[in-house]
Amino acid sequence: MSCEIIAEVANSHQGEFHLAKKIVKTFSSYGATSIKFQIYFAEDFLSKDHERFNHFKNQSFSEKEWSKLIFYTKNIGYKNIYADVLGLKAFNIAKKLKLDGFKIHSTDLTNDLLLKKISKENKKIFLSVGGAKINEIYHAINHLKIDRKKIVLMHGFQSYPTKIEHTNLNNINKLKNYFGECFSYGYQDHVAGNSKYNLYLCLTSLGYGVNYLEKHITLNRKKKGIDYYSSLEPNEFKNFCRVINKSISGLSIKKSGYSDQEDAYRKKTKKFWILKKKLKKNSKISLKDLEFKRINNLNMEPLFLKEFVGKKINQNLGKNTVISNNIFYKKIYAMIVARYNSKRLPGKATLKVAGKTLLEHLFLRVKKAKLIDKIIFCTTKKKSDDVLVNLAKKNKIKVFRGDENNVLGRMLAATKSDNPDIMVRITGDDILIDPGYMDKAVLYHLSNNLDYTDHKDLPSGVETEIFNRKTLNFINKNAVDNSGTEYLTYYLRNNEDLFRIGSAPVYKKHQKNLRLTIDSLKDFKFVKPFLEKMSKDNKLSTYNIDDIIVFFKNKKNNQIHTKKEIKINTNLKKNSYKDL
Prior knowledge:
Layout: E1 4-10, H1 17-28, E2 34-39, H2 42-45, H3 53-59, H4 63-76, E3 80-85, H5 88-96, E4 101-104, H6 112-119, E5 124-128, H7 134-143, E6 151-155, H8 170-179, E7 184-189, H9 197-206, E8 212-216, H10 234-251, H11 260-269, E9 271-275, E10 290-294, E11 332-337, E12 352-353, E13 356-357, H12 358-367, E14 374-380, H13 386-394, E15 398-402, H14 407-414, E16 422-427, H15 435-447, E17 452-454, E18 465-468, H16 469-478, H17 488-493, E19 501-503, H18 521-536, H19 545-552
Parallel strand pairs: 1-2, 1-8, 2-3, 3-4, 4-5, 5-6, 6-7, 7-8, 11-14, 11-16, 14-15, 17-19
Antiparallel strand pairs: 9-10, 12-13, 16-18, 17-18
Helix pairs in contact: 1-4, 9-10
C-alpha cells in the first residue's frame, strides 16, 4: 500500500507573495513531497454581490505571480505540484504552468465546461466529493474522458474546522461500493490543527484504503490567519508525515495477503496429517489411521481431510508417514496450447528447423517426460489452425479444438471426460522444455501438496507449469473475466492467499536469465542455431538442459528475459473462496 501526503497551502499565504514562498520553502524540509495551491480569481467563480467576493479578491495572486510561485516551487524539488482550479480562468493559468494534476471542487462537479477542458489534459484529477450527491459525482466521472486510474475521489469537507463526529469516514466505503476499485480514493482532513484527532482520523482513513491524504499547512496557527483552523505548523506536519509513513509500512502487504515474516511463521507452525500405523499398498486411508502434528518441512502444504480420506494409496507406507499427494494414484496430463495466428509471429508453430516444425520439436520434448499419462494438443476451431491439427495427428497427439479467447475453458473442455488430477500447461512458444525438470516439477508439486508449481529459476522457454485440475476449475468458475487466461499464472499469483503455490528447485548451474521462448522472429533466429547443432550431433531427441546451458554460455545474448507487464483483470468473484 502507498499513500501520498499532500500539503495544502490553500489561503494560508493571506494573499502575500513573499509569505507563499516562505511556506513552500519551509515545508519542503519538513516532510512535504507533494504540495497543492488554490488558484482562483473572485470574478471567475463568484458574483460581485456575493458576501465573500472582496475576501477572495484581496488574497488572490495575479497570473504573473502564479507563474513565479510555481516556477519557484518546482525548483525547490517537490515531487508533485497540484492546484484547485475554481473557474475557467484559473484552469487556463494552471494549464500553462504544467502542473501534475488538478482538483475540482465539489461545487464544480456539474460544470461541464470546466470538466471538458480538464479532461483534455489527461493529468491526475482529484474530485472533491464532500457534500456531493452520487449522481453529481457520476456526472463528473462520466465527463472526464481519461484513464479511471488517474481519477481520485476525495472524501471530506471544510467546516472551520470540521468536528470529529462530522467526518463520517464510512463514506469512503460507500464511494467504493458505488464506483469500485478502478478509481483511487483520498481523505482531505479538516479537523482542528491543534487536535490530536486530526492525526488519529487520518490514520483511521488508511484502514479504508485511501491512497491520498491532504492536510492544510500554516507557518504559525496562533496568528489566526485565513485557513488556520485545520492547519498544521511545520513541526506538527513533520511529525504527521513521520507517523503516517511509518503506519503505512504496517499496512503494506504482499499480494498473498501476508508479509514474508508471517509466511515464515506459518511454515514453522502449521500441522499435517500423519499415519499412526503402517498401511499396505491399495489400502484406503480412514480418519482412525491419522493424527495431526507439526513436522520439519518448510515447503510442504497440509491437505484437507476431504482431499484424501477414502482414497487408495499407491505404495506401502510406514508409521509417521506424512500425508502427501504423491502417495495416491494420480492422472497427469500435459496440455500443449498453441494457435496459428499468434500476435507477434503468425504461423511460427509451422516454421521449420532441422527438418521439423517448431510444434513437432515441442511434441518430441514432451513425449520424453516419464510421468505424463497423456498429451493433449489444445487449439481453436479457426480454419487457420487446421495445419496445426494435422501436425498433431501426424505425431499421434490427441487434439481438442475449442474457444479461441478462453484458453482455460479450452483446456478444461479438452479433459472433461477424463478428469485428470494434474495438468501440465505448456505453451507453443516454449519448444525447449526440459522433460527431466518437468518430471521433477510434477514430483515436487505432488510431494508438497501444491495447487500450482512453477520452475521460475529455469531459463524462459525451458520451464513448465503444474496445476491441479480442481484449481483450474475454480478459476474458470470464479474469474470476473476469464478472457485473459492465456496468462493463467497471473490469476494465481495475484490471488496467492487462496492457493497453495510453490516453485520447484533448480540446480544453480541451470539458473540462467536466458530468453529462449519464441515470441518473435528475433527469438526464432536466436534459438534456431541450437536446434541445428543438436541435429548435427544426432542429439535432437536426447539433448537436455546441460546442452542448452553449454551452447548459450558464450553467446552474445541481447535477448535477456524480462517480464512483460500484462494488463488483465485477474480479480475473482466475491465469496469465491466458498468453492475451494
